[in-house]
Write a structure and sequence with these properties.
TIM Barrel, globular, binds 3-methyl-2-oxobutanoic acid, Pyrv_kinase-like_dom_sf, transferase, methyltransferase, cytoplasm, methyltransferase activity
Length: 263
């Protein structure tokens, strides 16, 4: 399989083709996902919830992220490895640069960070130094307490307008990719059409350029309430590898997400 780079994602967007993304936190699952054709792997700070059992991503440290990045990097195969910066990595520019440098040294090929338009300066500093950035907008789990829970964002016109403007500002600052979480499908479409860079969606409807899910959700091993945008691909699959393949194919053919997964 051909190595996936940022240019590959850009080419997908230009060709109107979707691409698949999945979280992976270790070498074995990264290898299985890559072999299944998944384009982008994310060492997400969701590891705090699905691996460590916390009820939010806030306890995750940069050392946790670095450990799992090194593990996933050894199995990533042809896939592009995106890595999350944890809560408070953006506390100061110095810390942002140091944490980003550490994850790049550990094997990241794209750094993801949460934040609105105010993150533009940080993104400018990173991209100026050769660190490619994916900016995560919409439902940003690191601000869950401020948001009052894991709620759909951008439901009203003013909020939607703000998310579109923030995305444009962050792309202008240098973000190469935007990730949109839990927004109405109409907003997912509007942001995707407004930007030249690839947009990855999770609970953002069928029209974003790429789709991402948490691996544990794809395998049906998440406990507690299942969000609407999740699909368990283990149903009817006879192996983890085949569940990953089914997810990849469903994204590529736009069979996933279906109406029932959208807001
Ligand atoms: O941490 C994570 O896994 C994420 C995805 C939910 C997009 O940010």
């Amino acid at each position: 399989m051909k190595t996936v780079t940022l240019s590959t994602l850009q080419a997908y967007k230009q060709a109107g083709e979707t691409f698949s993304c999945l979280t992976a936190y270790d070498a074995s699952f990264a290898h299985a996902a890559s072999q299944a054709g998944i384009d982008v792997l994310l060492v997400g700070d969701s590891l705090g919830m699905v691996l460590q059992g916390h009820n939010s991503t806030l306890p995750v440290t940069i050392d946790d992220i670095l450990y799992h990045t090194r593990c996933a990097a050894r199995g990533k195969g042809h896939s592009l490895l995106m890595v999350d910066l944890p809560f408070m990595s953006n506390a100061t520019t110095e810390r942002l640069l140091e944490d980003a440098a550490a994850v790049m040294r550990a094997g990241a090929e794209l750094v993801k960070l949460e934040g609105e338009a105010w993150m533009a300066d940080g993104i400018r500093e990173l991209t100026r130094r050769g660190v490619p950035v994916c900016a995560h907008l919409g439902l940003t789990p690191q601000t869950v307490h401020q948001l009052g829970g894991y709620k759909v964002q951008g439901r009203d016109a003013a909020q939607a307008e703000r998310i579109i403007n923030d995305a444009k500002i962050l792309v202008e600052a240098g973000a190469s990719v935007i990730l949109l979480e839990c927004v109405p499908a109409s907003l997912g479409k509007a942001v995707t059409e407004a930007l030249d860079v690839p947009v990855i969606g999770i609970g953002a409807g069928p029209d974003t350029d790429g789709q991402i899910l948490v691996m544990h959700d794809v395998l049906g091993v998440t406990h507690g309430r299942t969000p609407r945008f999740v699909k368990n691909f283990m149903v009817d699959a006879d192996s983890i590898q085949s569940a990953f393949q089914r997810y990849h194919e469903a994204v590529k053919t736009r069979a996933f997400p279906a109406q029932e997964h959208c807001f």
